[in-house]
Amino acid sequence: MADLKLALLINAVAPAVGGVLVRGEKGTAKSTIVRALAALLPEVAVVTDCRFSCDPDAPDPRCPDGPHGDGADGQVRPARLVELPIGAAEDRLTGSLDLERALTEGVQAYQPGLLAAAHRGVLYVDEVNLLHDHLVDLLLDAAAMGQSYVEREGVSVRHASRFLLVGTMNPEEGELRPQLLDRFGLTVEVAATRDPEERAEVVRRRLAYEADPAAFAADWARAETELAWRIEQARARLPEVVLPDGALRQITAVCAAFEVDGLRADIVMARAAMALAAWHDRTVVTADDVRVAARLALPHRRRRDPFDAPGLDEDKLDEVLENTGGYDSAEPQDPGFGEDTAPDLVPEQSTGPDPKPAPETDAKPDSGTDPEDPDPDDPGPDDGPGGGPDGPGDPAGPGDGAPVDIEQALSGEESGEGSGKRARGDSPEPAPADAVYRTRVFTVPGLGEGAPGRRSRARTPYGRTTGARPGTRSVHLTATLLAAAPHQRARGRSGPGLVVRSDDLRERVREGREGNLVLFVVDASGSMAARQRMRAVKGAVLSLLLDAYQRRDKVGLITFRGTSAELALPPTSSVEAGARRLETLPTGGRTPLAAGLLRAAELLRAERLRDPARRPLLVLVTDGRATHGSPADALRAADLLRGVTSVVVDCERGPVRLGLAGGIAARLGAEAVRLEELAADALAGVVHDHRAAA
Ligand SMILES: [Zn+2]
Prior knowledge:
Layout: H1 2-13, E1 20-24, H2 30-37, E2 44-47, E3 74-77, E4 81-83, H3 90-94, E5 96-97, H4 99-104, E6 110-111, H5 114-117, E7 122-125, H6 133-145, E8 147-152, E9 155-160, E10 164-169, H7 178-183, E11 186-190, H8 196-211, H9 213-237, H10 245-257, H11 264-279, H12 287-297, H13 314-323, H14 338-341, H15 406-411, E12 452-470, H16 477-484, E13 506-514, E14 517-523, H17 531-550, E15 554-561, E16 564-572, H18 575-583, H19 593-610, E17 616-622, H20 631-639, E18 645-650, H21 660-668, E19 671-674
Parallel strand pairs: 1-10, 1-11, 4-7, 7-10, 14-15, 14-17, 17-18, 18-19
Antiparallel strand pairs: 2-3, 5-6, 8-9, 12-13, 15-16
Helix pairs in contact: 1-2, 1-11, 8-9, 10-11, 11-12, 12-13, 17-18, 19-20, 20-21
Bound molecules: zinc ion.
């Protein structure tokens, strides 16, 4: 939490830093803290009655409410925190040209949107990772140009829009597009605190509030006022802050060492370090400022792949800072802020104890006797002792928040082959996965109404116009005129211009794509467990998972082997979690196909209640054999899934084929695809080598 407050303060002092992305699990009060930020921002002077928050000293010459003369009336108001709901329509964000008034009253009217409201304030997006692509694009455009531009039916409006972008997200629910990630100046990981003393403080505060809400609020307001005053002081000091050459060299050295793209990181770091100096009542940037700035500005910029976990190697950071020439700060920390600026410098990467921590080990044959190997039972969030810089395969120790070695999982590298690693109970060692490839696209037929995504056809607020219906949300001009045309004589039209009434208005019906719930039901039994085959199966499922990630689906994973089925991954948008479960998937035993199908039917019934708009797509990966329970049971279980769009990936191989998967597919009404036909280009006759290079 200390880091979060610090990141917000830095932005309050220097909005040019560019906002904060807050990553963390649910229940960490991150939204509450962000919302409290607005009260701390200095007030802004605006032209009275200008809906676009023009500065009286420098009004926007192209302001839609302008032009404001030199002597325009000004007033002071608090800075705004404007929240963008993730499901907002485009008009809500950019504002709307009111064609209804244009047509019925003959006046041009522009209704400003959230981008106008947020100008000179904060634009806050809770669950920013779930924001629709279309809104993300508009946001990125506005952020890049510092203005918003709207055009409809040949009429256009442009207004200034510069804001602090603050977003929160739960990484378990999916990652952010790199372009958007880069837009955030700073990033902070928050976790529910596990320090008993900190927890006690939270409880104490809560009790104090309940005992005397009025006094508590007064105390709080006093602290807030003081903080706001300090921010204002720091802002005033900022222009005097000097960035010495030594500090600048450190910044560029750190950015180079962490291999960030472009110069944006260097600039953000410099701005953040200067803001920190101003906050600490100094006019010279110190090495401490640089270090804190690096910790907040770099973690999300050094990432290479959407599957990489965030975080910054602090040892490496220290090493680079030290090597960049004896530049040091002798200045003491500001005593009034000491508890917030001197937090434990380990980033809070942890996202909570995993109920089933996967045994993270390296490729050593016997991890128990290796002195460099971190204790696999240590649940601590800090780097394990073996987590040296760029250490292979285990960059952040064995913590539950440790990055999954997805790259290895995806590349099918065989570093653990034959080493006995990941032995788990009685199960045989999991087979590695073949390399991923682009798969064929499976969709749910019909027209859905689910969350925006990139899989099945759906009615959405965006996308291509396919028709019109009565309404005013997004006016369809031609349809409106056509609706008005037959009534012109009856309405007594005499001169030029149509007589249009509000019930003539037609809005667009649009069609786009939705994300689905892709439920994998994977046969992990002995009949599938021949090592080569399991590698191919895992490669296939990983490929489908990657596809689901790109299409913004939710994914779930049920596996069955032995005598029962297991929900290995409850429906989530976190594909990383799916890949992790798959990597350690135990195999062997009998084939309880019926149990797997029953479990799937149960899960889908529950999900239908929870999220009725999200249509499921079932992917059954099996050779069709059922050796626990009778084949008839399996067919009866399949009946429970009728009506669910399904795909059966037939894993049977060899010269003699029983074609059992085909029977199940027929019963499910599913499309049956042979494992080797799953690749997108398999049908085009292109030989696609999806086997691992090794
Ligand atoms: Zn204005």
